[in-house]
User: Fold this.
Amino acid sequence: MSKWSSNPSKPSLPSREFLRHHERLLRPPLEKWTLRLHRELNGLNVASATEPEEFSSISSCLNKASFAVASARCFDKALQMCEYQLAWVAQRFTENSDARILGHAIQPWINIGRLHVLRGDLNEALPHFVLAEHLADLEPARLGPCFLSSDAWKTILAEGPSALPSILWNVYTLETLKGYLRVRDFAGLRSAISRSRRIVPTKSHGFITEGEILGLLHQGDAEKAVACAVDASFASPFDEAAYGLHEVTGLIMLGRTSEALHRAKGIVTFLSYVEPQRPKDSPTILRQLKQVSVLMEALGESQYALATILRGLDVCNDYEDEPLQFFFLSSALRLAPGHPESPNWVREYDSLGRHSLYAEVRSVREADSDLQGPSPVLDLFRAVEAVALDNEVGSPALHRSLAPFD
Assistant:
């Protein structure tokens, strides 16, 4: 048996992946990305920002920085970075008394919840996903050192992005349901779905439906999952493909392979030709290509699986996502070791396996995926830490929030 055919990165059915169209970051080579973010941070006016554009640039850089560090599975350090960011927002608000600044606390607060989910602590995570309820009722909320009063919510709602309510409801549904799926708490998932259907505006119900389908698949109720996927309404061709992929998963689980293959072929046709038009399109296309390749392989259709994998590699050439590129290379080598391009695939695969800083890649090749020795990822963490500590304003409460956690 070749090392490709026994590769432990080969996924199993069903997936936990939410495949509907939503905002995700591409994951370029982590070393280059962290170095670029480090340079960007050094060029920002973190200490005395006053203009909205400055705050937006700093927040964007810090949000990406914590995501990058978390991608190396340095969860504790990523959590500290989010706490530092909240303390920076609190400090700037203390100095400027402009409630718009408090809007920059929302993303790091949500990111802390996501990190708790990744660490398996759902109870700690869930309070970070309920801001949509606070905003809807203009109910005060404390986000670490940042306090959002009713008046602050009014200002953020008036001055912030018009889509903010919709964004926060999507966070409420998507992140909550992802959390329950991750810890396999299906009773909690059902309860969360029921409550979401009661309180979440109808236009944000897409993730509730997808979460229900995924829950049914993971509990083995494929018949009901297929029916739910078939009946689901969709807002875009990407959403139609997402529900179709879940339907195919259920059909395979039921042994209805002819129906599954027919449905999957239509999705392959769509994904073979669709081109990214917006930033969120390429991460969605890549994840759907990954899933349809897995399903085609499960159906024994190796040629269709290989075609979607090659399409995935082509998309990765223009829209870098290193963990997904590594998956497509591994799959291509397993399915077509004698392909004319296989020598190039081997070189790329081995290079990524040796040099990638993404834990998702390192875990395939190494028993211990923790970073060892000096790393630009850890340098980026130290840069954010230094900025936070250098700009501490002296209040005891803020000093405690800035103190390292480990």
